[in-house]
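Dear colleagues,

As part of the handover before I leave the project, I'm documenting each prediction I ran so the next person doesn't have to rerun anything. This entry is a single chain, and its sequence is reproduced below.
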Amino acid sequence: MKKTLRVMKFGGTSVGDATCIGRVAQIVKDVSRQGSVVTVVSAMRGVTNRLIEAAGRAEAGERDSFHANFADLREQHQAALARLIQDPQRRDQIGAYLEKIFDEGKRLCEGTALLRELTPRTLDLISSLGERLSAPLVAGALVELGVRSEPVEATELIVTDSCHGGADPLMDRTRKRAEARLRPLLDQGVVPVVTGFIGATEGGTLTTLGRGGSDYSATILGAVLDADEIIIWTDVDGVLTADPRLVPDARTIPEISYREASELAYFGAKVLHPKTLHAVAEAGIPVWIRNSFAPERIGTKITPKGRSNGGGVKALTAIRDVALITVGGPGIVGVPDVVGRTFATTAE
């Protein structure tokens, strides 16, 4: 009988420090007893922001500043490593790998500082370092709990177009690569820990899927591996009826449709990346939003049709700092292509 396959993604707050990563490893271990698991991880909390800040400082030629950024990041990851991995040999191996990534990041920033130019391709390389640093830590924490695990870089799996900073997957090619790389590990009972947010062109050039793109990574892999379900672990109890920071008594919605969840994400809800559900819409794979800090809570189930609540409002969301532009005047009456030119101008 076919084993159940779950793809589980853990966000930055869920892997924020050693304690959080330990909690994540226990969740993965518990779920792995029920079937196969592919784990997708974000960078540790705040790391991507600091990497982007380091890249900006490098572009401005501020060498001391970006070196200070990398020193802080090294301290954060080494502290987590020391707490998570007790075996000295394994700790040294992971530590050496982390150092290799830090050295790569510093070289990229040195080159940027020298040229005083930060290209989209270079920014993708620098901003992707956080996921590449967190995946070995999570895999190592699983091994400490007796779970066979291996970090896997998504550049080996997710094939994308060449749009740096917001690439889209090429699903057929991704399916072939993901099956070839991950299926043998799953058949051996190994839990792959995949870097979220990252892909690569067919030629191997690293790309990113956009900020918050680890959710999208999980659903892409879930779709191409024909997963039974995808679980996005975050720091809230699911999709809520409103922003709990603004509405203290906001409640968790038990079940919601793909369309409703996509609309909420597009119009400002932070619980999902706006593209997350694109990959699974055709396959109809259920997607759960659950709280890694309270795994006993059931969360929200996102399904193709959702569940009716009798026609009432299910949730409210808002986008801050919106500007309204009105285009008018007698000079535009009868002008050909005025709508197209208006959108092109605002897009620029």
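The chain is about 45% helix and 15% strand. The chain has a mean pLDDT of 93.

All the best with the project,
I.
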